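RESIDUES AND SHAPES:
===
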Amino acid sequence: MVNNTSTTKVLFVCLGNICRSTMAEAVFNHALEKRGIAAEFEVDSAGTASYHIGSNPDSRSMETCRKNGVSMNHRARQVCREDFTKFDYILCMDEENLRDLKEMAPKGHTATIKMFGTYDPKGDRIIKDPYYGPQGGFDRNFAQCTRCTDAFLESIGYE
């Protein structure tokens, strides 16, 4: 449901916060801007692991977004305890991230924690890690993040 009294806060999460979650954040922000509703949201991304804290997104994620007209500006960070009460939705990329987030979540947290892929109308629940694969994995992730973004926004009352 749309929260009309304040911003809706969404956090995207993958393992290292340089490929999938940064792309999801960029795609989501782009969709918000196109719809003219960016001011109604606060969006960020993070990783469950600390491997890349402070790093730029993977160059292949950046290039995939760039070639699709989507800007990306992020420095990797790790999920922190406060995220579980700050954000309304924490949307992760796969079952391992989901399990890790549920283990990390403090008692009494308020965030809804789900896999972003549960919103994919094609039923492709897992947003696979493209890091060790060819460019096609990044292209596939971009298309999937776009589908999931549209479906998620619709699910909370935005067309």
Notes: The chain has five helices and four strands. The domain at 8-155 is CATH 3.40.50.2300 (Rossmann fold). The first strand starts at residue 8 and ends at 14.
